[in-house]
Amino acid sequence: MKKLLLFILLFSAITALAQPYDPTKVNKKAVGYYNQAQERAVEENYISAAGLLQKAIETDKNYVDAYLALGSVYGILKNYKSSTANFEKAFAVDSNYTIDYKYTYSIHLAGLGEFKKALAAIEEYLQKRAPKNPSVFEKVDKYKKSFQFAVDYEKNNPEKNYVFAPQNAGPGVNSAENEYWPALSFDGKELVFTRRLQNINEDFFYSKAADDNWSAARPLEGNVNTPQSEAAQKISADGDWMVFTANNRRDGFGNYDLYISYKTTLGWSTAENLGATVNSEQWDSQPCLSPDKKDLYFASRRFGGFGGIDIYVCRLLPNGRWSEPENLGAGINTAGDDQCPFIHADNQTLYFTSNGWQGYGGNDLFVARKGYGGSWSKPLNLGYPINTIDDEGTLFITADGKTAYYASDRSDSKGGLDIYSFELRQDIRPAKTLWVKGRVTDKKTGYGLLSLVELTDLATKQTINLVATDKNGHYFMTLPVGKDYAFSVNQKGYLFYSDNFLMAGLSPDSTYEKNIALQPIEVNASIILKNVFFDVNKFDLKPESQVELDKLVQLLLENPSLKIEISGHTDNVGKPADNLTLSNNRAKAVVTYLLSKNIPAPRLVAKGYGETKPVADNKTEDGRALNRRTEMKVISQ
Asked: When comparing pLDDT for 366 and 410, which is higher?
């Protein structure tokens, strides 16, 4: 209906402004085609209308009204190239008569990505025919600012080699129905999406990677699909949880609520409403889980926000319940609509859409990165041609950070919205992310343990991921590349386990499997403190050691009767006496740190063993590296 009214107004404007033309000088047959085109437009048959206008122009080459109308029709069809070409033909015949169409022409130039020309055209329009109606002027001025933004963006963010070439996911995924909200498994082997059946009921489907194609899509197994609609789904990184949106259900709190389903051996479980703490009486939708399943991001139109739709986050509490929603604040949300949140597997990079931040018009895609302390960077527009003058939708970005999936109704669509993939520009990519998985067990019994697995940035001391093992001790954790991490496993009654992933400057392709046997706290139990660091031949603790040493402090505070020995060890390079002194000083440095945290001195013993207790062959560098270590041993409890 909006398109129809727009077309009628355009025809009316043409008739009203036709003073420079003598109707008797326009070929009557051409006018007949023109009038028929108007009838087709009223029926919203724009293809037929365009054909009739072409006939009108062929009949009378100087029929300015027909050129302008054809330019407008092609604009409705989003054929901006043909649209601007016809406007330009009209301008060439009479630049004064056609000045009002410089506004529409500028928008369609922007649709082509020709923002400099669009800016010049809208400035000419404002100079010669500035709207007197304040609301109309505000709308035109908003477009001008968008074009200026686009020109400045291209100037300040030149990416001459980037090619935006979306690839249709193919007939296995896409059909004559609408497909949207793509979500991939962490390994990229399964694609889950929403399909709108007969343009009424929304259900979840999945397709598996098969060679270079996707297999024929099937409905998700289990009980999650119902005769009612389910949409806007996201699956947790470990593949065990799925959050989504459903509306007008008996257990709902508003017209749209957030639900959760769990992966079982029989498929996906019957959905559960996430409850009144998460959901409101207003519109709550578009959920996305952080990779550690600790944060639930979503969009809501609830009262008390910054604008129409804001992005919120709920935190998973120790008791398994979700916290009250937190608004992401003015650094993300605006007076407009901010929605479609997607947190990448790196747990640091957030993508979302907004019509409140300056962009190209409509809803644009933005990216913000989490900094120290959890604050977000200023959102960055993803730029043209990812963003256009039209509304953009949500993205799903693969773990490697290179490929994005989204839904669009491009010219090669199988019907309506289809799912496409494209390569992201380098500057707007998240961190490449691998994974580490395994099982935590009791070293003595071999039974799986419920425990906490934590990944901490050694430089910033910021926790990147914190996950709990399942009842059998299994865990899955994402691992962003490009930083050095401390990896630790904690459970009361056991010595913590520590390891590291030193990935700064590296980009490995392998994933990791770590099965960990925790030592029960008992006399003579010991662990290697793998994240205690010293410079070569020095005994000053490096700042990166604090993460590990604070874990040790926590262990001692939780077990107030525990007495431990900190021992230093070296390889066999250099003189034995020097190595003994170095190892003793390093052990003392650790004890000094513990004393500074109010651990009583009688509970601590420092001892250096030099090169006398190797754990590997000193003939290789790898072996010598293993021998250079700091250990902790339980003396009494």
From this structure: 366
What pLDDT score does 24 carry? Answer: 63
Give the rounded distance of the alpha carbon of 259 from its chain centre.
Answer: 20
Measured between alpha carbons, how far is 268 from 275 in angstroms, rounded to an integer?
19
What is the pLDDT, as a whole number, of residue 18? 42
* End-to-end CA separation in angstroms for the chain: 78
According to DSSP, the residues that pair with 572 across neighbouring strands are none
Sign of torsion, CA 7 12 17 21?
A: positive
Buried b or exposed e, range 91-103, using 16+ CB within 10 angstroms: beeeeebbbbbbb
pLDDT of res. 323? 98
pLDDT surpasses 90 at 567: yes
Residue 598 gets which letter from DSSP? Answer: T
| pLDDT score at 15 | 44
DSSP state at residue 372: G
Helices 2-16 and 64-76 pack at an angle, to 10 degrees, of 170
Half-sphere exposure of 240 (CA within 13 A, CB side): 11
Separation between Cα atoms, residue 380 and residue 367, nearest integer Å: 5
Question: What are the structural domains, with CATH classification, of the chain?
Answer: 2-156 (1.25.40.10), 223-407 (2.120.10.30), 432-520 (2.60.40.1120), 522-637 (3.30.1330.60)
Q: Per-residue pLDDT tens for 271-309?
A: 999 999 999 999 999 999 999 999 999 999 999 999 899
Residue that has been written with the tokens 């980037």 in this structure = 162
Average of per-residue pLDDT across 361-377: 91
Local structure of 83: helix, strand or coil: helix
Six token digits for residue 626: 């293993």
User: What confidence score (pLDDT) does residue 8 get?
Assistant: 47
With bands split at pLDDT 50, 70 and 90, how would you rate the model's confidence at 371? confident
- Quote the pLDDT of residue 226: 95
Residue 544 contacts residue 529 (beta carbons within 8 Å)? no
Structure-token match 């662990």, residue found: 527
* Strand 604-608 versus strand 563-569 pairing type: parallel
* Residue entry with tokens 């990896």: 487
Longest C-alpha distance within the chain, in Å?
112
Length of the chain: 637
Beta strand 396-397 pairing with 403-408 = antiparallel
Q: How much is the pTM?
A: 0.86
Q: Cα separation of 42 and 37, whole Å?
A: 9
